[in-house]
Please model this.
Amino acid sequence: MFLDAFGNPKEVTPDNLHEYSYDLHETMLLTSADHEVYIPPKWHGTIYSTEELLQNYRKRYNVSRYLERRKGDINLRSSQPDTTLLTFHALQPYEPEFICCENVVVELTALPAGQSLFSEMEIVVFLVKLTASGSNTLITKELGSDLNFFPHNHHYHARILDEGIDVVYVDDKIYSNGSPANYQHQRLFSMLSNIQPGNVKGLSGGPLPEVLRMACRKPNPAVEQN
Model:
C-alpha cells in the first residue's frame, strides 16, 4: 500500500489507478513478502519495510525481471515502473523514522506482527504518527500470529497507553465475499478490542461491519464538551 499526500494509506490497483495522482516520489509500505505488490507505471519512490522483508521480497520477486520483459514487449514499457529508480529503505522494528509525504511529515514505525497465517513468512504492521497533529494511525494489511504489536516490556507499550491509537486501517476485502464470521474476522475484532482505537477504516474504502466499531473506544463526553 502507499501513503498519500496527507499520510493516509491507499491501496493502489490497476482498477483504481486513475485515482492515483501522486505517482512520482511517494511512499510505499511493504507488510509482507508473500505476494507481489502492484507498482504504478510512473512511480519511482521508496519502499519501506524491515530488512528481512525487503530481502525476502527481492529474492522472491526480482524486480530486474521487469527490465527483461520490457526489452521483449513494447506494451510493458508503458505498464511497468522503471525499476532502476526504485529505492528500498530498511526500518528497524520499533524505531521510528521521519519521512516526508507531499503535504505532511510523518513518523513511521514498523511493528513485527509474527508469522503469516498462510505461510512461515514474517509480516509487519505500520504505525504512522502525524507530527503536526500528533494523531496515531495503525495500518494493517494482514493479521499474523502475533496480535500484541506493543509488547509490555518495550517502551512502545507505555507510549501507546499514553497516546492511544486514533485510527486503525484494516483489509476490508476479507468481508467482500459475504461469508459468515470466520477466524480472520474474529482475530480482527479481538485486535481492535485490545487496542480500542478511536475509529476503524477499510484500506480500500469499502464498508465494514458495524460490530467492528463497537470494539472502538467510546467518545469521552467530558472531552467533547470542552
